[in-house]
Predict the 3D structure of the following.
Amino acid sequence: MREPGPLYHVTLYITEDKRHSSFVVKGLLELEKKSYIELKLKTLPIYIYNRYVLGQGKFTFKKKGYPWCLELVVSEIKKRKSIRIGIDLQDWIDQFSFHSFQKCDLIYKRALTATSLNEINKIRKNFVIPFGPNCRATVTDNRFKRINKKIYLRNLLIKAFLNPIKAIDKIMKYSYRIPIKQISAGRDGFLKNPPQKKYIFFQVQYYNWNSHHSKVLNDFRANIIRRLKMAFREQFYGGMWFQGKIDKKYADCISNVDTEFEIYSSFMKNASIVISTNGFGDSIPWKIVEYMRNGSCIVSQKNKHLFREPIDKDIIANFETPDECIDICKKLLKDNLTISRMAQQSRLYYENHLKPSSVMKQILNESVSLL
């Protein structure tokens, strides 16, 4: 039993990427609430040029701003020694924050494969460690809200100073923009309540990024949706949802489920089986963590990215092709015991290895042990 009072003092330096960083912030706030840490939130400076790219056995500096990387300074309360940690939650295995690479003692990286880790270790051994997957997190803490507002205003002023014409153009477009509506099955035609029967659920967003990466992602997910519809008919719910205009190429993939997160969650929670496909850069998608938090039976596209702790077939059933996905789902629908066992195992894995407070507690203890 540990002594009362916090073990560590943590200063978290936040970037403009609040979408990913909320997972880390939530975990640290939960630890602060339990008096495990003392927490202070600060902002990192804006780095206009900050990209460090891994390729051909070396790192190369690029004059681009992305990716963002949170930084933490952690010290034991009873000691003066501290360690600086970078937490990179972006999608790409070959991109790093130059500042974090130069200033941090360790970097925990979400997008990481065994191959890329081996390549990094040849250059800088034991410097980069798998963070594993994360997901969306709701943070209501006023400190986080205030600091994000400060970052937003600061970024707006700096970008306006560096490129005033572009900044004015963006403001004008924003002022006269047409509100974008999330579209599922013909707006008012989508479902709002999950059925009381065994079913498979898979709902994903269409990305209109006009890039090779988004096309590959959309095409693979559309093929999965089409095959699920054909194979399971009324036992499949979900599909693809769109922001604004529907791409005719994917019109047959439109979801029949409302896009409101609470409704999406209710369909996910009641599904017998949920489907997951890889994210950009073949990263582990947020859905995996959402599914595990819910305790779902998961059928997922095989992923090479590293979890913090090994994961086996009793937790996630993996497929590589749409045919394999269909075959796995057919077998599972006939096997209630396996569905139940996989659901229990996924929830247990989440509690031990994916819950924000569990992840951040492990990272703090692991990093401080190196002091």
In short: The longest strand covers residues 236-243. The CA atoms of residues 147 and 253 lie 40 Å apart. The radius of gyration is 22 Å.
